[in-house]
């Protein structure tokens, strides 16, 4: 299986396929697959597209419901945005690490992560919505349009997920993460590079567009990983990993689109 920039997929228990399952009873080697994948005999049902769609819908729905409630409470002045923002950020980070390094998929952890992200994003969205009414629905629609467009691109084969493209996307994602980290550290010391300015400067807009593009291309790797897992007969429970992986990319994309929209509309 090709590598991925998404940690949810990079830490799946496999060694050139899903050989990590070979010690489980009821598995045998042979049949179609990649890297000597141990085909399930009877113990576990293989993953299907419906599994991926259902788990992703549950994960995304949890985030949307929690986020919507949080945003409404923040906008109404019922709660301050900072407690849910901090709690959601910390809880989301902790739960994501547990999900990534835990060897067995856990629906409760994935849904808990989704709820934490909903809390975090809802608080941020409430703040942005207070300054620019209507920006939340624009950001949500923009995120789903990009997601849908990349799904069409992948399904039609307009862009092939080759090893070379995979390496490029992973490198670009690592570079973006490094740039964000460096900018954050420097900002703590009062150094402003202008990379993440709230004003629509050419540099800030260019960086946001670049990050949106990288996040969009990450969907291609997510779709490809899910497709390979289905074709290899990966146990159905690992659909939760796919849902988690897609959720992490959606969160990043949404934040970047929200920031870009704010830069343009707040300066009007």
Automatic annotation (TrEMBL):
Keywords: Membrane, Transmembrane, Transmembrane helix. The chain crosses the membrane at residues 57-76, 82-101, 108-128, 134-156, 168-191, 203-221, 241-262. InterPro entries: BaxI_1-like. The keyword Iron-sulfur does not apply. The keyword Transmembrane applies. This is Bax inhibitor 1 like family protein.
């Amino acid at each position: 299986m090709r590598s991925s920039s998404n940690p949810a997929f990079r830490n799946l228990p496999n060694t050139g396929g899903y050989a990590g399952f070979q010690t489980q009873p009821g598995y045998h080697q042979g049949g179609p697959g990649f890297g000597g994948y141990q085909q399930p005999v009877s113990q576990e049902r293989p993953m299907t597209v419906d599994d991926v769609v259902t788990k992703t819908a549950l994960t995304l729905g949890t985030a949307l419901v929690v986020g919507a409630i949080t945003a409404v409470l923040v906008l109404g002045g019922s709660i301050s945005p900072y407690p849910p923002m901090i709690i959601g950020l910390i809880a989301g980070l902790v739960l994501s690490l547990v999900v990534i390094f835990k060897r067995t998929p856990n629906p409760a952890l994935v849904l808990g992560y989704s709820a934490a992200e909903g809390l975090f994003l809802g608080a941020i969205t409430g703040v942005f919505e207070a300054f620019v009414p209507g920006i939340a629905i624009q950001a949500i629609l923009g995120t789903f349009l990009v997601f849908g467009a990349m799904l069409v691109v992948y399904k039609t084969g307009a862009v092939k997920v080759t090893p070379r493209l995979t390496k490029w996307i992973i490198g670009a994602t690592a570079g973006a993460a490094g740039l964000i980290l460096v900018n954050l550290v420097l900002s703590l010391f009062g150094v402003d590079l202008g990379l993440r300015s709230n004003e629509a400067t050419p540099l800030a807009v260019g960086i946001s567009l670049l990050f949106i593009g990288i996040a969009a291309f990450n969907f291609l790797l997510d779709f490809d990983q899910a497709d390979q897992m289905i074709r290899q007969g990966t146990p159905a429970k690992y659909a939760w990993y796919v849902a988690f992986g897609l959720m992490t990319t959606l969160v990043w994309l949404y934040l970047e689109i929200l920031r870009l929209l704010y830069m343009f509309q707040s300066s009007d």
